[in-house]
Amino acid sequence: MDFSVEYLQLDQLRQLQSERLVNLVVYLQEKSDFYKGKFTESGLSLSDIRSIEDISRLPITYKQDLRDYYPFGLFTVPKNELQRIHCSSGTTGKPTVVGYTKEDVDLLSEVVARSLHAAGARPGMQLHNAYGYGIFTGGLGLHYGAEKLGMSVLPISGGMTTRQVDLIIDFQPEVLCCSPSYALTIADEFSKRGISADEISLKYAVLGSEPWTELIRHHIEKKLGVHATNIYGLSEIIGPGVSMEDFEEKGGSYIWEDHFYPEILDPITKQPVPFGEEGVLVITTLTKKAMPLLRYWTNDITSLYYDKNAKRTMVKMKPILGRADDMLIVRGVNIYPSQIEEVFSHIKGVVPNYYLTPIEKEQMCVALHIDVEIDDELVTAENLTINSGEYLNFTENFGKSIENEIKRRVGITTTIKIHAQDSLPKCEGGKINRILKAK
Ligand code: DLL
User: CA–CA separation, 148 vs 140, rounded Å?
Assistant: First the structure.
C-alpha cells in the first residue's frame, strides 16, 4: 500500500482538498435533490466555492436530515449502483442509513488499512476482529481494512468472551480490535485465568466506537501487553477510520483529511471556533460517491491541533469528550462521563468499570450516583477482607475521597458506592452505556 498522501506538504494537501471540494459541489448540484434545494435556499452558486477555504459557505447537514429522507433520500446514485448498505448504531428512532458504491467500499478499506498501519499492524499479521458484524460498520469495516493491508482476519464478532480468549490463546493473533470496554472484559478473562501480559500473543489493540480515556488505556496495555490506540469514525461519514492514533505517538488521532475535512463549530452559534478550541466536530466527505455529506454535524465534542512531534502532516483531534447528547447537566455544570473517568485516573485503585445514575429533583439533575469497582489488590494491600466491618469502613472512606476529588476537579456533587472487583456488569461486546436511569 502507498501511504505517501499522509505525508503531503500542507499546501499540497490544501490543494487536493480544494479540488475535491469543488468537484463535490458540482457532483451534488447534479445528483442530489436534497443539496440542490439547500444551495438554492441559501442563494449559493457553484462559483462561490473555489477552494477549501470557502467551506463555511456551505450548508450544515444534520442527523435529522438523514431521518427526514429515510431510507435512501440522500443517496446520489441509483440503488443498482450500490454495493453495501449500513446503518448507524443508534438505539432510538429510525436508524440512519448509509449506502456505499464499490468505490466507497474501497475507500472504507483504504482508510481502515491506513488506520491499522498507524496502529502498528503490518501485512502478514493476524487480526482478532471482535467488532460486531452486521449493520454496524465496525466488524466489516475492520475486516475489509485488514484484508486490504494484507493481514489475515478471524471474523469472530463480539460476545462469548471465554471462546474469544480460547481462540486468542490457540491462534496467537498479534492484533485485537473491539470497543475499549470489551477489551477490558477480554483482559479480565485473561487475568482470571492467571495468564500474564507477557504470555499473550497480542501486540496491538485498535479500539474505538465509544469514548475512553487514559485510565482504560493504562489497564488494557498493562493486562494485555499491547499498544492500545484509538480509532474513531461514524457510519454517516464512512464507518471506522475517520481518524486514528499512531501507536508511537498516542494522545490524539490523525484525521484522514484527504477524504474527511474537519471543522470545529460552536454548538450554539454553529460558527467555527478559533483553531484549537473545543466544539462540535463537523465533517465533509470529500470523495464519497453514494452518499456524500457536506459539513455533517457529528455531535461529537473535540478539538483540533497540530502535534509538533507528529510524523505525518495531517491535523490531529483530541479524544472525543463525549456526544453532545450524552452531556449531563448537574446543577448547571455540564459534564460528560469521560470526565468522571478522567478523575478516576488520578485515584489509585479504581478499576474502570463504573456506571452513572443521575439523581433528579423536580426534573433537574442535582447530583450523580456512581457505582464503581476497586482493585482487589488495594483491598489486599490494606489487609482488608470483603464483608468485614473494616472493609465497609474502608470503602466508605475511599468513596468519600472519590466524591471529594470529583467535586474538586469537575465541581459536581456525587454519591459513590464502591463495589468489589468484577462485581458490576461488564461489557459483553459492542458499545457500553455507562449512564443508567434512576429506578
Ligand atoms: O462506531 C464506527 C466505528 C466502528 C468507529 C469501529 C470505530 C471503531 P456508529 O455506530 O455510527 O459508528 O457510531 C458513531 O460513535 O459519532 C461517536 O459518538 C462514537 N465513537 C466512535 N468512535 C469513537 C471513538 C461507529 N474512538 C459514534 N471515541 C460517533 C469516542 C467514538 N467516540
Answer: 12
Taking CA atoms only, the protein residue closest to ligand 1 atom 16 is 234
Residues having CB closer than 6 A to ligand 1 are 88-89, 131, 136-138, 141, 208-211, 230-235, 239-240, 298, 300, 320, 323
The SS3 call for residue 43 is coil
Distance CA 170, CA 307 (A): 40
Q: Write out the E strands in 165-295.
A: 175-178, 204-208, 227-234, 239-245, 253-255, 260-265, 279-285
Q: Which of 136, 157, 232, 339 to mutate to test the pocket of ligand 1 (most atoms within 8 A of CB)?
A: 232
User: What residue owns the CA closest to ligand 1's atom 30?
Assistant: 211
pLDDT tens for 299-312 read 999 999 999 999 99
Burial of 3 (C-beta count, 10 Å sphere; 0-12/13-18/19+) = exposed
Residue 314 is given by DSSP the state: S
The span from the CA of 78 to the CA of 89, in Å, is 24
**Would you list the domain boundaries of the chain?**
1-324, 327-420
- Whole-Å CA distances, 120 to 173, 177, 228, 362: 13, 12, 10, 51
Please write the tens of the pLDDT for every residue from 211-262. 999 999 999 999 999 999 999 999 999 999 999 999 999 999 999 999 999 9
Q: Does domain 1-324 have CATH number 3.40.50.12780?
A: yes
Distance, in Å, from the CA atom of 188 to the CA atom of 182, rounded to the nearest integer, reads 10
Close Cβ partners of 271 (under 8 Å, ≥ 6 residues apart): 265
The CATH code of the domain at 327-420 is 3.30.300.30
| Cell 473555489, residue located | 50
